[in-house]
Amino acid sequence: MELRKENKVLKYFLITISFIFLGVFLILPLVYIVITALRDGISGYINAVSDEYAIKAALLTIQATAWAVIVNTIFGIAAAWLITKYSFKGKKLLSTFIDLPVTVSPIIAGLIYVLTFGRQSGLYPILDSYGIQIIFAVPGIVLATIFVTFPFISRELVPVLTAQGTDEEEAASLMGAGTFTIFRKVTFPHIKWALLYGVVLCTARAMGEFGAVSVLSGHLRGKTNTLPLYIELLYQGYDFTGAFAASSILVVLAVIVLILRLVIENKGNKELDLNK
Amino acid sequence: MTRRKSVIPGFGISMGITITILSIVVLIPLCSLVVFSAKLSLSEFIDTVTKPRVLAGYYVSISTAFIASLINVLMGLILAWILVRYDFKGKKFIDGIIELPFALPTAVAGISLTHLTTTNGWVGQIFYNLFGIQIAYTRVGITVALIFIGIPFVVRSVQPVLEKIDKQYEEAAFILGADAKTTFKKVIFPEILPAIISGFTLAFARCIGEYGSVVFIAGNTPYETEIAPLLIMSKLQEYDYSAATSIALVMLGISMVILSVNAIVQANVSRRVNGKI
After folding, report:
1. Band of the pLDDT at B4, cuts 50, 70, 90?
2. Share of chain A above pLDDT 90, in %
3. A276 has pLDDT over 70
4. Residue A226, in any domain of the structure
5. What is the pLDDT of residues A32-62, one digit of tens each?
6. pLDDT mean over B70-74
7. Considering the entire predicted model, what is its pTM?
8. Mutate to test the interface with B, among A6, A10, A26, A70 (most CBs of B within 10 A)
9. A89 and A16: one domain?
10. Which of A10, A15, A207 is the mutation pick for testing B, counting most B CBs within 10 A?
11. Residue A267 binned pLDDT confidence (cut-offs 50, 70, 90)
12. How many CB pairs under 8 A join A and B?
């Protein structure tokens, strides 16, 4: 029963403010990118996005993103399983360390890798003797990307696994199932939507990382430039059409991510309702 | 590490994977930061971080992040409110688009906001011609970029709490004769205050460290619009790792303070909720 009448004036006032705010801060920048990217016509746009260096940058971005998703998925599942299925000392500390990367400025993230693997580090001569170069090379970019997205997947899995409890796994284990059978048959069906959700968030952040990657990349065109770094390069060279055209690729990906997010959320919620 | 015995197998392997990856990605780099910091001399450290240009950098980062986060508290509150309490066309759209700052690469947002707000940009020229306000290449511009970055934080922390508030309390307040304003102030606001603080501190911490979207719009004039992360970046490009680390240590200290304030607030709240005060 609704006791109080909704204040219509307040309602439309607040909704109008919200639409204006989001319109100016979120929609306008998106629209602007697309319009600027297309201002030299379709052929100009196609030229800009099919530039040799643009494609190489896109490929490097895909490579770094793929690594980040793979490593963080393995880590996320292991860590979430560890945190929710067992009790042990140091669990709180472990969670703090896992969350640490997202609270650190991306530039500082880059800095700590430079200190770890750079010329002044004790590790440098060892790595160098094996011919491994990490900073100002692709491995550094991959590491930085993993770092900035580190907790994204475990953070989605932990609440789901906590809510699910340990009863089902204990029962399976007592009936003689091994670790991987338990995981595949009992745990995985519960976490699949949360996992997919985490992967989507991880992908979104990984493909757009700029600060940390910028510190660790040698800014070599065609070698260590990711798409966001390539955009910066074009922008600083006053090639605005090129910069916005390359940006538009990332805009499309961002919109896809947002749609996927909504779809997965709906699917996950529906399944939860069914379980109830 | 000791543990209570569990019948579920797989402790060893999950612990092994977790610790290995955590070590390579987080612990070893963190240790090298500690080792490197220990080698810095105190006088050198103090000398670096008290240089007027560096102090100005901290001031620019903190003040713009603070103002941007305050604006986001207000707008986040309004957005969470309309999403939970009202039905209107385009609600799903708003709910979806709020995450855009998480999904859109910061550099892309940065160049777009910059172009829009220069004195001959779509939005910038309106402000310049009508009010004489320059947005891009000033601190106003930095604040605009940080507002963009911080939009989702407050909304996403207040929204679930607002959804859970039991309507009974508001009905009780109404029956006892409270008007809408009093009900909001005395019944709803205290419930969502911890979530507001949490959203604010997360946005604030994120904005202080933000780099990608800000470098384009800031103009990067020393003392005026040069943010602290950019100072670290330029020290790194000069291979002056000691100075870069010193500036970074102070920034890490600042974010630690901000995040601990939040942790203390949240711990107090959960104690009160559990009836231990």
Report:
1. low
2. 60
3. no
4. yes
5. 999 999 988 888 899 888 889 999 999 999 9
6. 97
7. 0.91
8. A26
9. no
10. A15
11. confident
12. 277
Same domain for A14 and A61, yes or no, is: no
**Does A183 lie in the same domain as A118?**
yes
Q: Give the domain extent around A20.
A: 7-37
Nearest chain A Cα to B242, which residue?
A: A115
Which pair of structure tokens corresponds to residue B144? 């605009």
Q: Are residues A127 and A71 in the same domain?
A: yes
Residue B5 phi, psi dihedral angles, 5° rounding: -60, 135
Give burial (CB, 10 Å; 0-12/13-18/19+) of B24. middle
Burial class (CB in 10 A: 0-12, 13-18, 19+), B277: exposed
B241 SS3 class: helix
> Do the beta carbons of residue A214 and residue B233 sit within 8 Å?
yes
Question: What is the domain-level CATH number for residue A108?
Answer: 1.10.3720.10
Q: Do B108 and A75 touch (CB under 8 A)?
A: no
Whether the predicted pLDDT of A197 surpasses 70: yes
- pLDDT of A1 strictly over 60: no
CA distance B156 to B146: 17
Nearest CA in chain A to B241: A115
Same domain, yes or no, for A132 and A16?
no
Between positions 196 and 225 of B, the ones with CB within 8 A of A are 205, 208-212, 216
Residue B226, both tokens: 């040069």
In the predicted model, is pLDDT for residue B179 greater than 50? yes
Rounded distance between C-alpha atoms, residue A41 and residue A45, angstroms: 6
The token pair at A63 is: 């490579």
Give the mean pLDDT of chain B: 91
Residue A240, domain member (yes or no): yes
Looking at the structure, tell me whether residues A30 and A89 fall in a common domain: no
Burial (CB count <10 Å: 0-12, 13-18, 19+), residue A150: buried
A2, part of any domain: no
The answer to whether residue A1 is domain-embedded is no
Cα B197 to Cα B58: distance, rounded to the nearest angstrom: 22
Q: Which chain A residues contact residue B252 at CB under 8 A?
A: 104, 108
Q: Cβ of A268: how many Cβ atoms within 10 Å?
A: 16
What is the rounded average pLDDT for all residues in chain A?
89
Closest residue by Cα to residue A83 from B8, B266, B195: B8
Burial of A157 (0-12, 13-18, 19+ CB in 10 A): buried
Number of domains in chain A: 2
DSSP letter at A141 equals: H
**Domains of chain B as residue ranges with CATH:** 39-273 (1.10.3720.10)
